[in-house]
Amino acid sequence: MAEPDHIIVKPIPNLSKGGLGVAFPFFYIEPKKYESVLRKYFPEDKGPITTINPIGNSPVIVGKESLKKIAPTWMNISLAMKKDPETDKAFGWVLEMYAYAVSSALHGVGNILYKDFMIQPPWDTEIGKKFIIHYTYGCDYDMKGKLTYGKIGEWRFDKRSYDNVAPPRNLPLPPPGVPESVCHSLQGNETGESMELTLPYPLPDCA
Questions:
Q1: What b/e readout covers 18-57, taking b as 16+ CB neighbours within 10 angstroms?
Q2: Where is it localised (predicted)?
Q3: Are 123 and 133 in contact (CB under 8 A)?
Q4: Does pTM surpass 0.70?
Q5: Among 19, 38, 69, 140, which one is least packed by beta carbons within 10 Å?
Q6: Are residues 79 and 62 in contact, defined by beta-carbon separation less than 8 angstroms?
Q7: Using an 8 Å Cβ cutoff, are 145 and 175 in contact?
Q8: What are the counts of helices (DSSP H) followed by strands (DSSP E) for the chain?
């Protein structure tokens, strides 16, 4: 499973072994911290809270039969969490990620935690052996190539800028010094004056 803000930069092999799924570990998915909340959905008789992996639903490699079991539970737990004010407040926008992690644990589907699954610019600057670039954070830089995170940069690439409109076909070149992880999904055109998005669908020409 992947997301629209994932750029796959090299073929992903089947990393799954022994019936386990494979997932990226997120530092902000903290089952121990939220044990009292999670016990509403993962009772003590199901095992220690650490049975719940610190993952979301993507990127994930999971077997079809396992997903058939997980998916209905994932939906039901997501709805139950959203309806519960305490859980909804605790998890916010990562609620469905927790719901997937809980559902996976309930069905006994463990996961290999694979840190090299993806990078997340601007904090990760080199692609290396990673398979995915996850553009979850805004990438803001001044014209000297210095990161200005938290402040809109003179040059920026942020998916949130395109919530209601398609990105333009040609984007300004990033300044020198911007890391490869930010620029990898963009290709320079013949003039070298702009970057053209590498996308599998046509985009409208924008002024």
A1: eebbbbbebeebebeebeebbeebbeeeeeebebbbbbbb
A2: Membrane
A3: no
A4: yes
A5: 19
A6: no
A7: yes
A8: 5, 11
